[in-house]
Structure formats: structure tokens, C-alpha cells
Amino acid sequence: LVRDGGCAFPGCSVPARWCDIHHVVHWADHGPTSVDNCVALCGRHHRLIHHSHWRIDMTTGIPQFHPPPWLGGASRRNPLHAPPDLVRIRE
User: Fold this and answer.
1) For position 57, what pLDDT does the model report?
2) What is the pLDDT of residues 20-66, one digit of tens each?
3) What band does 89 get if pLDDT is binned at 50, 70 and 90?
4) How far, CA to CA in Å, does 52 sit from each of 35, 39, 49, 57, 86?
5) Closest Cα to residue 4, out of 74, 45, 14?
6) Are 52 and 18 in contact (CB under 8 A)?
7) Which residues of 9-22 are buried (b: 16+ CB within 10 A; e: fewer)?
8) Apex CA 58: angle with CA 89 and CA 42, to 5°?
9) Dist CA 34 CA 12 (whole Å)
């Protein structure tokens, strides 16, 4: 939640205290519960991710959201909560 500061979906301003933690690689598919595999999402966007064709990519350590093909457009992230230069120290 510290990394995301709130719902990580682009344009969403819901604060962290009202967010769920979403596993990018689902827990049921043996996805780890780790910072590199989890993202904060509000209830609305958590449902959207589960029931639509949006995709989340964590290769940069910051959640990047990819819209479904029919919406077009580039991947995006939410700069509202966390500063773009946030650096996470790895152990």
C-alpha cells in the first residue's frame, strides 16, 4: 500500500484505507503474496480487473495497466498517489 498510496488504477483517487490487495498472478494460480505481485485496488477497479480484459504488468516494480484491445491506447499508471520517482529498497 505504501508504494501505491491508494487505488493504483489510472485516474482513481480512492485512498489506501478503502482498497483491496489484488494478486497480479492470482493466488489460486500459485501467485506469491509479495510486493512484486500485489497491487492496491478499490472495490470498483478490483472487480473490473477480475471481470474484464484489463491486464497489469509489474516488470518495472510499478503497476502498469494495459487496456483491452478494443479500447486501444498505451499502458498507463496512476501518478496520483505515489511520486513517480519512488524507489523501493530491496533486501
Assistant:
1) 92
2) 999 999 989 999 999 899 999 999 999 999 999 999 998 888 899 99
3) very low
4) 23, 17, 6, 15, 29
5) 14
6) no
7) bbebebeeeebeeb
8) 100
9) 23
Q: Are 77 and 11 a contacting pair, CB within 8 Å?
A: no
In the numeric block, the cell 489460486 is attached to 28
Q: How many helices (H) and strands (E) does the chain have?
A: 1, 4
Residue of 17, 19, 33 whose CA lies nearest to 9: 19
Q: Where are the beta strands (DSSP E) in 1-91?
A: 19-23, 38-42, 55-57, 64-66
More confident residue, 49 or 78: 49
Could you tell me if 39 and 22 are in contact, meaning their C-beta atoms sit under 8 angstroms apart?
A: yes
End-to-end CA distance of the chain: 18
Whole-number Cα distances in Å, 41 to 21, 56, 71? 6, 11, 20
